[in-house]
Amino acid sequence: MAGMVEIENAEKTYDGGFQALKGVSLSIEEGEILALLGPNGAGKTTLISTICGITMPTGGSIRVGGHDVVRDFRAARSLVGLVPQELTLEPFETVWSAVRFSRGLFGAKRDDAYLDELLRRLSLYDKKHSQLQELSGGMKRRVLIAKALSHDPKVLFLDEPTAGVDVELRRDMWDIVAKLKETGVTIILTTHYIEEAEAMADRIGVISAGELLLVEKTTDLMARLGRKELRIALSAPIETVPEGLSDYDLRLEDEGETLIYTYDTQAERTGIARLIGSLSEAGLSIADVETTQSSLEEIFVGLVRKEDDEGDAA
């Protein structure tokens, strides 16, 4: 069964010769939340713009709801809502007029009841008749989402949805996205906030230099690439790691009070049991033990750095 968004070998080369997308292929299912991670200039916004019809691809094919974004532009675009990164709003316009105007741009029939319900879902109903210049930054971003959803699209693109908002508003936005998912909306977001992808996305795609490095379920990515650390608090500090423990991947922290043992979660044996025995043999007394999982940010940085190193080698 075809996905809601189907991308096959999409390419985008600008007139000057710069290739922003290099054979990107991706299938996004209905009702899925996909997060696109990548450094500045990686191609995230170019990919979204190409799917939305703002930029024309120079190679490959892209379909939304089965409609080709080039040959069947109107049908494809009618299924898409886009929330840009910039706060592009007319300051003297009211919330209501802005949302009604966006719906009209798509040729959708007037449906005030739907728009009222949309504003309620986004906690904007009590601001319905307020001018946009009177709203906070977080409220303005909600208006952008309302405008993007005004014609009841099946796919919503969020380009850096929480850029420039505080932590509380960011988590508020996460709740909004989760509720949209419950209604069956397919959501693709780009973000610089790793915790945003980790908290919300069903799958994560990592893009760098116009190439899609991987797309995996968030949990699978963490399990496959994540590493764990065993933090061993010692009863008494030591100056150096004893020679008898040189076979282990250990480092000393907290002024000699903590030993850190890094191990692969996918390995057949972690070596922890043997390490505990070796610590006892070395005369070290353990006060406490805890494990920590490597973060998605560490995984992401590692992937991009690996890609850069391979590119330099080539």
Automatic annotation (TrEMBL):
Molecular function GO labels: ATP binding; ATP hydrolysis activity
PROSITE patterns recorded: ABC_TRANSPORTER_1, ABC_TRANSPORTER_2
Keyword entries, A-Z: ATP-binding, Nucleotide-binding, Transport
InterPro entries for this protein: AAA+_ATPase, ABC_transporter-like_ATP-bd, ABC_transporter-like_CS, ABC_transporter_ATP-binding, P-loop_NTPase
Ranges for domain ABC transporter: 5-234
Domain of life from the UniProt record: Bacteria
UniProt xrefs under Pfam families: ABC_tran
Protein name: ABC-2 type transport system ATP-binding protein
Upper lineage: Bacteria, Pseudomonadati, Pseudomonadota, Alphaproteobacteria, Rhodobacterales
